[in-house]
Amino acid sequence: MVVPNITVDAFHHFAAVSPDWPGNEWWHWLVFTVIIIAFVLTMIIGVIYIERRGMARMQARVGPNRTGPFGLLQAIADAVKVLLKESITPANADKVVYWLAPAVVFAPVIIVFAVVPFQNGAMLKDLNIGVLFVVAISSISTMGVFMAGWSSSNKYSLLGAMRNVAAVVSYEIPVVLAIAGVVILTASASPLSLNEIVVAQERVPFILLQPLGFFLLFVGGCAEINRSPFDLMEADSELTAGFHTEYSGMKFAMFYLGEYGEAVVMSAIISTLFLGGWQGPVLPPWLWLILKVFLVFFTMVWTRTTLPRVRIDQLMALAWKFLFPLALINLIVTAIQVLAWPDILPLYVIPINFAIAAALVLLWSRFFKLGWGRVEV
Q1: Is the N or C terminus of the chain more exposed, i.e. has fewer CB atoms within 10 Å?
Q2: How far apart are the C-alpha atoms of 24 and 18, rounded to whole Å?
Q3: At residue 16, what are phi and psi to the nearest 5 degrees?
Q4: Domain boundaries in the chain?
């Protein structure tokens, strides 16, 4: 009988899981692959329910409440309905690329979770370049979107796909710079490991030390994953349904799952980098991670319900004129603080950093107009 190597810290109520749990490396890969797939699909159903009921509450509606208790099975009923629908392929489509695109969009959602820790060491693989892995793999879905727009032989689909490519190229820079601030704060031999980043937040979550970085990652992440008010590649008033206009049946369902899967991934990454990931008292570590993911996603729902959709010129201006300069300043301020206090940052930098973040956001928004009254070319 193989006894897993698990050490428990009674005060913090979390366990350090051995890299070969539950017995050897192959069992480890098999068990965590099943866990990740089940976790992602369950979380997608959960966030769909949260968005529908949350938006209904904010808009004085009831929301889904008929299928299952409190409407919890509505997403499953919708999935069954979509499976029964006819799948139509345009006559002039590039069929191979057209069929591959949904899989290319959804696959990165599963792969990214290979390096996301559910508790200390509980992950498929603790890569010492985990942050780079997440940034690289999460960008692959953009290729799937472009494949869908290009292969559909539809101008609306192509325009929606090109908007997505432009948004990802623009917002990837401030997003990576925001993540770089977290890496600088992680005093570890492997600062790019997501597990080490969570462990480094044992004293205080990085959202308190990096409020501006959290803001930059949240806004840039919402733009990259096509969340409102940045959902311009699916702007129904302009592009019908955007890049997936010509998709139906199960292929459309893959895009639908991919969209909410990307929201789950972004919520998990934000929770891991800034909210302490699995760390928390009393409750099991994996439950803390789930609660934080739902909290971040609810904030996305809140912004979707509150803010109107921006124009494409405003989307680009926000990235290059607003987020990018703030990301550079945030990186410089973080580097100065780490040089000033190389061992550990004192707690009195928390109100200082919040003041800096608020001042920069307010002042920079005064200096740079994003074209709210006119169209910028």
Answers
A1: N
A2: 10
A3: -95, 115
A4: 88-367
